[in-house]
Write a structure and sequence with these properties.
mainly alpha; 100 residues; elongated; Nucleotide pyrophosphohydrolase; 78% helix; single chain; 3 helices
Length: 100
């Protein structure tokens, strides 16, 4: 099994942070976003944070120094937020597709 290398994981985390920053930039920019777009940008933000925490946890383990005291709770909370937003997005689109 291939092992992670610290520098490679740092590059992955950097890419994840760029994805998250792009999502947040578009979420909070001055132009009006549709509710669907806003929900999906929140999902991207939460999932990027989950992936970033996984990456940071891997780096900590590789270095042998644990800094994040409860990454599991953080990941579960962000994943729960993404899940809730996707369910809300899905429900709103089902309602729009249902003929009156």
């Amino acid at each position: 099994m291939a092992k992670f290398k610290i520098e490679h994981v740092k590059e992955i985390v950097s890419d994840i942070e760029e994805i998250q920053n792009t999502a947040m930039k578009h979420l909070w920019n001055e132009t009006q976003q549709s509710e669907d777009v806003r929900q999906l940008l929140h999902v991207i933000d939460d999932l990027a944070r989950v992936a970033g925490m996984f990456g940071e946890t891997i780096i900590e383990q590789l270095k042998g120094e644990i800094v994040n005291t409860d990454p599991q709770t953080y990941i579960e909370q962000k994943l729960s937020g993404a899940y809730f937003q996707m369910k809300r997005f899905e429900q709103s689109n089902i309602e729009e597709e249902t003929p009156s």
